[in-house]
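Narrative progress, year one. The postdoctoral researcher (J.K.) led the effort to move from monomer predictions toward full complexes, under supervision of the PI. The following entry was the first complex the group processed end to end, covering 596 residues in total.
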Amino acid sequence: MTTTETPVDNGVNVEALLGVRNALPDTPEIAKFQWRSTVAWVNGTHSRSDVETFYGFGDEQQHHTRFSYDIDHPLQFAAQDKGVTPVEVVLVALGGCLTAGVAAVAQQRSIQLRSVRATLAAEMDLHGILGADPDVRNGFSGVTVSYQIDADATAEEIRALVAQSQKRSAVYDIITNPTSVTVEVG
Amino acid sequence: MPGTTTVIVGAGHCGLAMSHCLAARSIDHVVLERAQVANSWRTQRWDSLRLLTPNWMTRLPGYAYRGDDPDGYLSARQVTAMLEDYAEASAAPVLTGTTVTSVRAAGGGYVVRTDQGTWRAPTVVLACGAATVPAVPALAWLVPDGITSVTPAGYRNPGELPPGGVLVIGASASGIQLADELHRSGRPVTLAVGEHVRMPRTYRGRDILWWLDAAGVLDQRYDEVDDLVRARNVPSMQLVGSPGRTVDLNALSSAGVRLVGRLAGIADGVAQFSGSLPNVCALADLKLGRLLDTIDAWAGAAGERFAPTVVSAAPLSLDLRSGEIATIVWATGYRPDLSWLEVPVLDRRGRIVHDGGVMACPGLYLIGMPFLRRRKSSLIDGAAGDAAELTSHLAGHLDALAGRRERSAS
């Protein structure tokens, strides 16, 4: 690993993260989190999702503001294109999660990052969601993420950063492994 | 009630090593063994199994391999014979056919109940093994009827399995060996691969264990590692005890074994595999690269590097009701069985709490666990160092007890 004169700063407070981890053996309940969003139909395939509160660290928590997301489908789907498609939100989530992981792992490994960029692509066959072929799944048939990283590290160290980020990524896990989903109507 | 100074539970290599060290200090003890010396080597090993470590590494306190094949690998039968000879040569006070039914703290010491009577002792050493019970995940219950499930502890040879496809769950030492053996038996084999430790059998012309031993990698101490929980949970190395033969994922897949991701679930009879296969392979390749760098830094100059693991498009599901899979091999690891221990030693997740084998309850010791005191604690070769240090601690504890008695008598 390259040593630098100035302390490595990727803007990640690793001490705080490690502090939480070190507190877990005594207070495992702080690790119980619940993430939430609401969604309201606007018109057509356009809906708006809000994210404001979550539960964690043993208490109700709140973002500093309410974040809103317009979700729609493009004009090519005869929709209004008021926002990104839901499947694109999944790519946004994966890219955000992996990149946060790259920064955090780099900080912990004392690797100074200069730039981190990734291009994400997901393959999907519309036969699935259109119900045109029962053998084709609705979701992605595959996802590729391609990183370009400029950092004070060897190529091997950068590959290890990206691998470790996947290993610790919630969204990567959500996409690569089955999750039980319960949908109720009140 | 008979009394002794130390009760050792289990007459495997660790229990016998401990006995040897205690005897060297004239500490009175017994070794209680539920069946016979080296029981699990007699009863829980498949026919073709050989040690992963070369014969010259088969070292115990007061014992070193002196046969004519130092670079070979002992079979389970040979390990059994070796441990029998060792017990006899050390005159270990083993009581065979004695099953411990409970250990509880009482009066500053321990009461050890067995099906052959009860012992009282100020110190107890738990040497009953880390790999006593196969650890099969709960989703095994979801396997449809009609599929044979086996664990490496119960498996003997391909002839005992029904014909047809085999799904091997787990790609550590047991999983890759059984995938290889079952593939050679003519069965189509699918191997579900989670995190694993890729290892070449030879590097720079020598057995990889020679390098790990010589470069001090195996001597790394438990109080020197960054993340001990992780270090203690590292899967076993992808090795087979066969000279010069590497059985890594590339070898298996080029022979025709189909690789899939970690078994993530079974829904309606369909096995679901994780999409993380490329990353677990990348992690293992990178980790192997770092290990070889460590060896090179120690040895000077650079050795060969191994081709990255080839991951082709792996299926994400497999219908277990289709008849394609006749057998599932759960090579998902083992766990210790201390259910008879009536001393609180488990954390909230059921893991045994100990500090290098020294347990919180004074006079109670544990040996034979992964990375107990050193990286090599899980190897036969690790028992000598661990037993010597635990014996020192145990002797110190006895001295303190004796000092307390003297002070209270005066």
